[in-house]
Amino acid sequence: MRFENRVALITGGGSGIGAATARLMAREGAKVVVVDLVSDAAQAIAEECGGLALTADVADRAAVEAFVARTAEEHGHLDILVNNAGIGCFGRTPDLEPETWERVIAIDLNAVFYACRAAIPHMTGRNSAIVNTASISGLGGDYGFTAYNAAKAGVINYTRSLAVDHAREGIRANCLCPGLIATPLTAGAKTIPGLEPGWHDTIPMGRAGTPEEMAEVIAFLASDAASYVTGAAFVADGGQTAWTGQPNLYRYAAAAAEGAVA
Ligand SMILES: NC(=O)c1ccc[n+]([C@@H]2O[C@H](COP(=O)([O-])OP(=O)(O)OC[C@H]3O[C@@H](n4cnc5c(N)ncnc54)[C@H](O)[C@@H]3O)[C@@H](O)[C@H]2O)c1
Predict the structure, then answer these.
(1) Which of 10, 20, 144, 258 shows a CA-CA span of 20 to 30 A to 218?
(2) pTM greater than the 0.85 cutoff
(3) How far, in Å, are 35, 74, 124, 219, 227 from residue 171 at the CA level?
(4) Are the C-beta atoms of residues 168 and 123 closer than 8 Å to each other?
(5) Which residues form a coiled coil (predicted)?
(6) Residue ranges of the domains in the chain?
(7) Which DSSP symbol is given to 190?
């Protein structure tokens, strides 16, 4: 029961990594507040967790301030903030509409600032934790991920800045950098022939991660077990970023030994 009597607000809690995190924290005693753009999704997960559901667009600063205020009103304070809501985008610079760029930056980056700005006054001095869901896409470039790459890199360095600024107030701030995780966000990969096996092939573990595996990392970062961890960008990617991208020589050698091409 790592989160007994802890109040945890989770954005994007209606699906995928956020939903798994809400479930795990609730199982371990947290009073969860599930925020999502999709009202039914937030409601369903909050009901499962015995928590509070709030519907909001995290890109809307006033809406963010309102859901943080509502959480503080309900519980008197806030211990854990998980900034997890996010969207992707696809398109190289000349083809990307500025409105798409702006929306991705608004949801994936600006919203993190809005929520931290609103929440920190309710967290100060409580041995609290902020966990931001960044991405390995914030550590390097991807083909056609433009705004997503920029936003997630921003989240990683903003997390470091938060960690430095608030360390002496008892607030830790860390981010999770997932690799490919099987959620509705990445389900589209199944619809493009060859993409999913090709993607898995770039991951040393040979598979996508699960939302539950990410929830475990978020929970660790939010828990007292991580009491000396702040400013970290914790990678959980099945080894993807540990690999330089150079060819798997063993595979080519094995194929050559059989007179085939890898
Ligand atoms: N799935 C992956 O492979 C992967 C990899 C790296 C990082 N991430 C990050 O993990 C986080 C969660 O993604 P997921 O894979 O669980 O996706 P998901 O689509 O399953 O869940 C995201 C949730 O965020 C909500 N949301 C989207 N825009 C919102 C908005 N404007 N306001 C409020 N809620 C909003 C959605 O309704 C959804 O419930 C995102 O920040 C994503 O960028 C995911």
Answers:
(1) 144
(2) yes
(3) 21, 21, 7, 15, 10
(4) no
(5) none
(6) 7-257
(7) G
228 is catalytic: no
Residue of 143, 148, 158, 250 marked catalytic = 148
Domain 7-257: assigned CATH number = 3.40.50.720
SS3 221: helix
As for ligand 1, residues whose beta carbon falls within 6 Å of it are 11-12, 14-18, 36-38, 41, 57-59, 84-87, 107, 133, 135, 178, 180-181, 183-186, 211
Q: Give the DSSP letter of residue 218.
A: H
On the CB side of 86, how many CA atoms lie within 13 Å of its CA?
A: 28
Q: Using an 8 Å Cβ cutoff, are 152 and 106 in contact?
A: no
pLDDT tens digit string along 37-76? 999 999 999 999 999 999 999 999 999 999 999 999 999 9
Atom in ligand 1 nearest the alpha carbon of residue 209: 3
What is the 15 CA–ligand 1 centroid distance (Å)?
7
Token pair belonging to 196: 């999913």
